[in-house]
Each structure stands twice: as C-alpha cells, then as structure tokens.
Design brief:
- The chain is an all-alpha fold.
- The chain has a single domain (about 10-90), classed as lambda repressor-like DNA-binding domains (434 Repressor (Amino-terminal Domain)).
- The protein has helices at about 10-25, 25-35, 40-45, 55-65, 75-90.
- Helix 2 packs across helix 3 (about 40-45).
- The longest helix is centred in the C-terminal third of the chain and has 17 residues, at about 75-90.
Amino acid sequence: MARRRKYSEEPFGPTIERLMGETGVTYRSLADKTKLSAGYLNHLVHGNRPVPSDKVVRQLAKSLGVEPEHQVGNHEATDHAQEVAEDAKKK
C-alpha cells in the first residue's frame, strides 16, 4: 500500500532519489517496473528533464510506494498545472 505522505518539500529529482534510497530501488529496477529507461530516470533525478507527465508520476509513485502527489512539491505542482493549462489553451 502506498504511503500516505502527501507532499515532499524537496524538488522532484531529489525526492525520487531519496525514495529510491529508502526502498533500495536502483535505476535499472525502477526502469523495469515503470517501463521507462534508466537514462531517462537519471535525467529526472538530476534535473535535466522537467517534471514528467501525470502518467509518469503515477508510474513512479506506484513503483516507489507513495502517493503520486508526494513526488511533486507544492511549487512544482503549481508550475506543472500552469503548464498543462497553457498547453490546453493552445490547442
């Protein structure tokens, strides 16, 4: 069952890295669980990619045993929501 912690105060990448450490999950095993590449996950952790889509956040959360909202801190969640809204307006 997913942990009930709602938000992380950390940025997205460090949150993923910390959760990986807490659960003993490697990039390769997380990649296998999520069907994402280990390289992509490494880029997320080190901030070389923006916060991913909601689908990817849900995949990561499920694999790391937390609620999806835990991985996106309040600031990043707001930024991500704004980006989604702006993209929707463009369509």
